[in-house]
Amino acid sequence: MATSVLTSPAPSYDVIVIGSGIGGLVTASQLAAKGAKVLVLERYLIPGGSGGSFTRDGYTFDVGASMIFGFGQKGHTNLLTRALADVGEVCDTIPDPAQLEYHLPGGLNVAVDRDYDSFVARLTALFPHEAQGIRAFYDTCWQVFKCLDAMPLLSLEDPAYLAKVFFKAPLACLGLARWLPVNVGDVARQHIRDQALLKFIDMECFCWSVMPADLTPMINAGMVFSDRHAGGINYPRGGVGVIAQKLVAGLERHGGAIRYKARVTKVLLEQGEAVGVELASGEQIRSRRVVSNATRWDTFAGTAGSAGTGSQPLVDAEHTPKSETTWRRRYKPSPSFLSLHLGVKADIVPAGFHCHHLLLEHWEAMEAEQGVVFVSMPTLLDPSLAPSGHHIVHAFTPSSIEAWQGLSPGQYAAKKQADANRLIQRLEAILPGLEGAISHRDVGTPRTHRRFLGRMGGSYGPIPSLRLPGLLPMPFNRTGLKGLYCVGDSCFPGQGLNAVAFSGFACAHRIGADLGLNPWALPA
């Protein structure tokens, strides 16, 4: 139960951020750079959440995927580059010549080249009768991207920002407004008739949104389908966790602080306003503003509440705003993942093998339990992540927490072993000899993700529970409780490191406006 605070009358901090995922760290570091006194509270031992890394037996494994957007050098969509630069940091990155290679039913194999025209030519060669439609669809995605890339991406909740950015780029603002209520499937069908090609577009969306095209907002697709050719996919040397480490370094350089093994159990409220947090230890810390980088299910109570979280939500049912009930009707948690972190002998990897792959044997299994298989091999870009003569194979497939509940310890261990073996057998289709080349093996389940990431059911994030008009229903950073904000994939514009970085910029800007910290001029 959220309670009133009776201790220390003055807030200790301007802003407390609950959780050190990339969205939370961008929020915290941006606010620290503006002069706010910021504290980040992280329940685990390292920063980054699903954007972190861990080491085992000489291997540096990424917790999540290693297909990273946002490290471009031009425009405004290079949000990771900008977030780091704003606090005096930079990541050394390695360009990937391809986003990923698809291995799809019916022998449909497509590699997405970094060069846009090469990708279009490759896809057109497979669907020559749809040459005009392919070009028209992906060119439309570029229109969306150019609107985004023409303006600093800050808080759409700030009228002053909206006025300034409209004055700076009126056509881009109008173009963006046009695409806000639109989903990808509607646009794809305007230009394409071939059902196999439309299924490919579904998979193009699913590979990062875990949704088919009809449920994927066009704004997000415009960013992803174009930025992979503009800024490109770039891997941070040393592992994805380096991004979080550098954001923490920048936060601390600007006077902010982070505490690990500090699990927040509730948001403290006075007269309906967030005034601080309470830790599992009972310690209470006051602040002028509170930001939750937890999912909305872990932040607020509700009928779809915290089942599967392993902990109570930060705000009890009595104080949960009615707007959160509406949000829960519109969105549901996506599945978590069964993850394999493998160390393998390098000699099984063919020359010219791409870093990222997606495997699906049957179209009807796309949204099924353990249907699509995602593969990352970051050592093809950065060999220092593994011992000499070895590579990393990180494979993961969507899996629901429900499939792992109600098991005895023995049943759980047996299911982990059986499901991991089955996944390895599927990977033999693209890496023959894999099973005999494994020298290290870690298996993670939705229960693992829930435990270490503190996310309800280990979910990847919210997905629409019904067909929605693009991004219009996605909430921004302010909540129905004064002084409490949300950031991360439960907020506009959704999942992905670059998307949650966008959310972090927006949240920091909105709080900066509320605290009178923002500069008058927009970023260059």
Overview of the molecule:
The chain is α/β, with parallel strands linked by helices and 524 residues long. It is 33% helix and 20% strand. It has helices spanning 22-33, 79-86, 116-126, 131-149, 159-168, 170-179, 184-191, 195-209, 218-227, 241-253, 296-299, 322-330, 409-427, 446-453, 497-515, and strands spanning 13-18, 38-41, 53-56, 59-62, 93-95, 98-104, 108-113, 234-236, 257-259, 264-270, 273-279, 284-292, 331-333, 336-345, 356-359, 373-376, 390-399, 438-444, 462-464, 484-486. Strands 1, 2, 9, 10, 11, 12 and 20 form a seven-stranded mixed β-sheet that branches. The chain has a seven-stranded mixed β-sheet with strand order 7-6-15-16-17-14-18. Helix 5 crosses helix 6 and helix 7 (184-191) packs antiparallel against helix 8 (195-209). The longest helix has 19 residues, at 131-149. It is globular and about 65 Å long.
**What is the C-alpha radius of gyration, as a whole number of Å?**
22 Å
**What is the general shape?**
globular
Overall structural class, as computed from helix and strand content, comes to alpha/beta
Tell me which oligomeric state these chains represent.
single chain
Mean pLDDT: 93
Portion in beta strands: 15-25%
How many helices in DSSP terms?
15
Q: Helical residue percent? A: 25-40%
Through-space gap between termini: 45 Å
- Which regions contain 5 or more consecutive residues with pLDDT less than 50? 1-8, 304-309
Largest sheet: 7 strands, mixed
Give the tally of β-strands. Answer: 20
